[in-house]
Amino acid sequence: MASSNFSPAAPQVFNGEGYHIWVVKMKTYLQAFDLWEVVNSDVEPEPLRTNPTVAQIRQHADERTKRHKAMSCIQNSVPDVIFIGIMACESPKQAWDKLKEEFQGTERTRKQQLLNFRREFENLKMKEEETVKQYSDRIMAVVNSIRLLGEQFNEARVVEKVISTLPERYEEKISSLEDSRDLTSIPLTELINALYAQEQRRASRLEEHQEGAFQAKTNTAYKGKKTWKNRPKPDAARSNDQPCRHCKRPGHPKEKCWFNPDAVCQHCKKKGHVERVCKSKAKSR
Fold first, then answer.
1. pLDDT along the chain (285 residues), means of 10
2. Whole-structure pTM value
3. Hey, where are the domains in the chain?
4. 3-class secondary structure for 155-216?
């Protein structure tokens, strides 16, 4: 009997999609309340014997009540649009089978679905851009669909599929695992984690290599290249930075200064400037 202290959450309402998942959840829910046998066997409680005891009367009442409880669970787990289809069913077994017939289909349909999923499983291969975890998730999605249709699918077969369809870059890791483990009995989770760890190490090394290559390229590009601030200036530029000895202003050498108190102009014969900047010469032109 189910524990009186245990009250599992009711399964989600079945809206017509994901029937196989709903069936698993609903079956577990009914088992938790000791109601699954009522649905599965659909056996009417035996009639009471003559002069039954109080205990027998209570047990008989409990058995009859179980049928109503199971029917209530099924009816309340579907919306009204689906409930209409099972409304006329007189037992939980009839309601259960009615839903199965409508949403799972016939046995022929189930077998065709299984065939399609098996074919999909056999054709699965890992893509170059996929991680091993993404690939294993794709495989398990197909495997779980097969299992939901009632077919046994052991983990060893999944492990074999993963190993046989991995790209060449995983061969070294697979060989290493073969040396230390029996791959026919290795858990799928352990295999995926080992391969994922290799992926992480490879990605880390690739990132470091790319960063090193970029830094080397950057250093090569700037090697020997001096900034404008540190670039040596030509002699003329360095002399222009110094203030002129005559006018005390920078920007020109003393030989080209318009003011020179020691110079004598060859044109006007006056002191203080050279002929090149003589104003009298400019006016006479």
1. 62 87 92 91 75 79 87 94 94 93 83 92 91 92 90 91 89 85 86 86 69 64 56 54 74 68 74 71 63
2. 0.53
3. 19-47+54-103, 109-208, 244-284
4. HHHHHHHHHHCCCHHHHHHHHHHHHHCCCCCCCHHHHHHHHHHHHHHHHHHHHHHHHHHHHH
